[in-house]
Automatic annotation (TrEMBL):
The gene is dusA. It comes from the Bacteria. This is tRNA-dihydrouridine(20/20a) synthase. The keyword Translocase does not apply. SUPFAM superfamilies: FMN-linked oxidoreductases. It comes from Marinicella sediminis.
């Protein structure tokens, strides 16, 4: 399935949305749009690009999120991504970390809309797949709706049609990246007003969405929602939102998803991946169920000890009282 459905997507999360997490999420929903972690152009061009860009066709469609500000480097990375089968290239204009700022990319680029437009143009000319932008609504004191709209209009004039809006501003000094995900207040109306003023654009809202009700309510105003931590903590929420949004029926139960992922783990272990790394995405699968704490505790205790033994997963499953 290679058709991109923007109603629902999993946010790119550094150190979290790796290929194993994406494989697991795809088992839950056949339509949710999956993103890689942010990968810098430098890491791809001068690092282990095969390892960084590797993914399974079973994860598709997958969008790659790039971090960078050099148009030529971004274009080269976009070409590599397209050749490997990625369905979309997304430019990060929202990460506020000090390391990212020193590299002159991420949220600080909101102060340079012409640079972002040039980056977009270079990437879009290099590939046939969609190129999109993920941004904040502003940085520091430059957080008026008017400034946000000017940024969007500048990049849209270069041809960008899809914007993923994290509806918080970024504070570049004084807050950690974690604090920047919660301390600046959410201003959903920025995304709503943007869509109303520019109906020709595709606007996807990100930030603070944790329930089915919140997600369906937002679809009244925007084209899609992107969810991050809530999906990590309770991944079955992907299924609930998928169904609530009318994205089609899903047949697999939690246990069937777990069985399929266990088979995947066995394959990955044969390739040298540790079970300790593979169990991270599934820790929240039985969120809210009786025995969930025992399930998680067993996995995090036993997987590091028995790094090649997938039976740890079925043993942990026995701790959960779940009848569906």
């Amino acid at each position: 399935m290679n058709v991109i459905d923007r109603r629902l997507s999993v946010a790119p999360m550094l150190d979290w949305t790796d290929r194993h997490c994406r494989y697991f999420h795809r088992l839950i929903s056949d339509r949710v749009l999956l993103y890689t972690e942010m990968i810098t152009t430098g890491a791809i061009l001068y690092g282990q690009k095969e390892q960084l860009l590797a993914f399974s066709a079973a994860e598709s469609p997958v969008a790659i999120q790039l971090g960078g500000s050099d148009p030529a480097d971004l274009a080269q990375c976009a070409r590599l991504a397209e050749d490997l089968g990625y369905a979309e290239v997304n430019l990060n204009v929202g990460c506020p970390s000090d390391r990212v700022q020193k590299g002159r990319f991420g949220a600080c680029l909101m102060r340079e809309p012409d640079t972002v437009a040039a980056c977009f143009t270079a990437m879009q000319e290099a590939v046939d797949i969609p190129v999109t932008i993920k941004s904040r609504i502003g940085v520091d004191d430059e957080d008026s709706y008017e400034a946000f709209e000017r940024f969007i209009e500048t990049v849209a004039a270069a041809g960008c049609e899809t914007f993923i809006v994290h509806a918080r501003k970024a504070l570049l000094k004084g807050l950690s990246p974690k604090q920047n995900r919660s301390v600046p207040p959410l201003k959903y109306h920025y995304a709503h007003d943007l869509k109303a003023a520019h109906p020709e654009l595709t606007v996807v809202l990100n930030g603070g969405i944790e329930t089915v009700e919140q997600s369906t309510e937002q679809l009244i105003h925007v084209d899609g929602v992107m969810v991050g931590r809530a999906f990590w903590n309770a991944p079955w929420l992907i299924r609930d939102m998928h169904i609530a949004m009318g994205m089609g029926e899903l047949q697999r139960t939690r246990d069937e998803v777990l069985e399929a992922y266990t088979r995947y783990c066995a394959q990955m272990i044969e390739q040298g991946v540790s079970l300790h790394w593979l169990i991270r995405p599934i820790l929240g699968l039985y969120h809210g169920m009786s025995g969930n704490k025992k399930w998680k505790s067993y996995l995090v205790t036993e997987a590091p000890r028995r790094k090649t033994d997938v039976s740890v997963i079925s043993e942990a499953r026995e701790k959960v009282k779940y009848a569906h």
